[in-house]
Write a structure and sequence with these properties.
With about 230 residues, the protein is α/β, with parallel strands linked by helices. Helix content is about 35%, strand content about 20%. A 6-stranded parallel sheet has the order 3-2-1-7-8-9, sandwiched between helices. The protein binds nicotinamide-adenine-dinucleotide (NAD).
């Protein structure tokens, strides 16, 4: 049977599309502390600040275009004879824009969620401090992104895929944010081959069987081309 591949992507795959990573020196994250904008407590304290932070990120993501790394993964999903599952920590929509199917474990900027009734809908370009839910009409709308301290989405499905994979690949992720950072260890324990693709070696590199370094827009298409050539 053709090998099943599970791929985890992080902010690094979107860096060359102009979306900053956590560590970028001038990135959006350096202007705000995580605890001020990306936790449920922050939203309870200052909903306007949090909405404005995500409004800015949504506007930035809407301008961004997929780069050759997103395109190569979409091509792999189409052309590889085995199953290719892409799981992303990113909240941008660049994998879908490139034509891939993806599990957004940290939610998506394109979505809105009612904190009161759990209704989900497409997020408007900008949301305010007392944004109403179209279903229950309470002013409890929030971005449908997973904040620090909240449970990521699709965990059971992702772990099922991971444990039935033949190869696990982590692309453009620092390995600092759990539970995604733990996938490589789960894979290792299960005897699954592991590969890291990153701009540079990371603190997690020692956990992988192999690390390929280079910008995602070059390293990912090269890896995919090699795999599809067989
Ligand atoms: P991170 O910022 O912690 O790490 C990014 C990694 O990408 C680093 O290891 C870096 O070496 C690597 N990298 C940077 N430029 C690269 C390039 N051109 N090619 C290949 N690799 C490159 O990001 P993370 O591990 O995804 O952190 C997780 C959190 O960051 C997630 O919760 C995610 O929601 C959030 N985040 C998302 C976005 C987005 O949606 N685009 C952007 C910033 C942060």
């Amino acid at each position: 049977m053709a090998p099943k591949i599970v791929i985890l992507t992080g902010a690094g795959i979107s860096a060359e599309s102009g979306l900053g990573t956590f560590r970028d020196k001038d990135g959006i994250w350096t202007k705000h502390r995580i605890e001020d904008v990306a936790t449920p407590e922050a939203f309870a304290r200052n909903p306007l600040l949090v909405q404005e932070f995500y409004n800015a990120r949504r506007a930035q993501a809407a301008e961004a275009r997929p780069n050759p790394a997103h395109a190569a993964l979409a091509e792999l999903q189409r052309a590889h004879p085995g199953e290719v599952v892409i799981v992303t920590q990113n909240v941008d929509g660049l994998h879908e824009a490139a034509g891939a199917e993806v599990l957004h474990m940290h939610g998506a900027l394109a979505g809105a969620l009612c904190g009161a009734c759990d209704h989900r809908w497409e997020a408007p370009a900008a949301m305010g401090a007392e944004e109403p839910c179209p279903a229950c009409h309470r002013p409890a709308a929030r971005p449908d992104v997973v904040w620090f301290g909240e449970m990521p989405y699709y965990m059971e499905e992702i772990l099922d895929h991971l444990l039935s994979a033949d190869l696990f690949v982590a692309i453009g992720t620092s390995g600092n944010v759990y539970p995604a950072a733990g996938f490589v260890e789960e894979a290792r324990v299960a005897g699954i081959e592991t590969l890291e693709i990153n701009l540079e070696a990371t603190e997690a590199s020692a956990l992988f069987d192999r690390t390929l370094t280079g910008p995602a827009s070059e390293a990912v298409p090269d890896w995919v081309a090699g795999l599809l050539r067989g």
